[in-house]
Design brief:
Strand content: over 45%
Order of helices and strands: EEEE
Mean pLDDT: 78
Low-confidence stretches: none
Length: 88
C-alpha cells in the first residue's frame, strides 16, 4: 500500500543535543636540595564512559622528596557536567 496524500500532516524538526564530559587533572611536584637528595613523583588519571551517557573520572598522585631542604606536594582536581558528588 502506498500513501501519496499527506498534506494534512505538518513537518516537525526536533533536535535535542545531549553533551557532557568529565575532566581530571593531577599535578605532583617534588624538590630536594643537599647531599643524597632524591625525589619521586607519579600520577595517574582515568576517565571512563558509562553506559547511561555519563562519565566517571579518577585521579591519583604521589610526591616524595628527601634531602637537607625538601618540598613535595600533590594537587588532584576535576570538573564534570552534573557532578554526583564534589571531589573535595
Amino acid at each position: 500500500m502506498m500513501i501519496n496524500n499527506l498534506n494534512h500532516l505538518e513537518s516537525i524538526l526536533d533536535v535535542h543535543a545531549i553533551s557532557g564530559g568529565v575532566f581530571v587533572g593531577v599535578t605532583a611536584d617534588a624538590i630536594a636540595i643537599g647531599d643524597s637528595s632524591t625525589t619521586l613523583t607519579r600520577t595517574t588519571a582515568i576517565v571512563k564512559p558509562l553506559g547511561n551517557g555519563g562519565s566517571i573520572g579518577k585521579g591519583r598522585g604521589i610526591a616524595i622528596a628527601s634531602g637537607d631542604n625538601s618540598l613535595a606536594g600533590v594537587d588532584v582536581y576535576g570538573f564534570g557536567d552534573g557532578c554526583v558528588s564534589p571531589s573535595w
